[in-house]
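Hi X.,

You mentioned you wanted examples for the new student's onboarding notes, showing what a folding record looks like when two proteins sit in one file. Here is a clean example. The first protein comes first, with its sequence line followed by its structure tokens.
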Amino acid sequence: MSLPSLPWPLVIGSVYLRPLLPSDVDSAYLSWFYDPLIQKYISFANDSVTQKDLISYINQRSCKDDCLFLGIFSNKEGFFIGTVKLEPIDLVASSAELGILIGSSRYRGKGLGRFVLSELIHWLPNALGISRLTLGVSKTNFPAIRLYTSLGFVVTSSSEYSCRMEIHLSC
């Protein structure tokens, strides 16, 4: 089942979300993947990631019927702040797997992740009929676990290094 056509950009306060494009891949975006803090928690991030890798990843995601790979941009100057990925999206089961990255260090720790996720939690049931979000998180990523828990996510399982969390959404 294909995703419905959605009106972009989705403006939420001081930021907007829209599908990522290959033209969004610049040196600043690439530098996020070399950041030791990001490398600690994002498995794709490492010193060998290239601009070509990122463009390929975006192109692959944009061709999929079960994926929304969105950029987070500031309304004021259009600055690329981070990404939100919903993949896979299962419209039959009304569920999606969530990932978020605030890549720009100048926007980390300012509540932007909380704001974006809170807005998505309210938007997804109406826009896509999503009633359940799941995610995986490193057990040592305490700020992320605190954030997800404060938004209503609960731990559903765990392994030595990571845990699975979910939240049930309502319209």
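Then the second protein repeats the pattern, sequence line and then tokens:
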Amino acid sequence: MFIKTNKVKNIFDLAVVNELIERIQKLQANTMPKWGTMSADQMLAHCNVSYEMAYENKHAKPSAFLQLILKLIVKKAVVNDTPYKHSLKTAPAFIIQDAKNFEEERNRLIDYIKKTQVFGAAYFDGKASHSFGVLNKEEWNNINVQYEHGTITSFNDKYIFIDFRGNGFGQ
């Protein structure tokens, strides 16, 4: 079991990634969430959206006006190292309503996480995000840690996923 800490783990660290992947692999298609309404397949697809925005041209970018609003109002809450609260409102692109292929979504998420670690912090330092403009490597790390991974903090009776502070670890 992990020791609770307030330090955000580093998505660019291979040991963190390996542990994260191990926990993702423990997730089952029929695992039920302790809060929220997403199924396990939807939750994995939800987590993949942020990576799609970072690596693919799959989602429409916000208008210049909306991007300015996001940058001025939302960015500070998203890129910091404070844990997100449960069941927060999310952007429309992250809302997954249809059933997804669990294995496909899990494999995609694992591949994205590996890709992020291999590309490393230097790749992300100064890279423009889909919605918030240019971010530094710490902000990119926090986005990956907080949103994609914090979403899946607990499913069923076992804490399957990482909130990257050690909270909720164990079985």
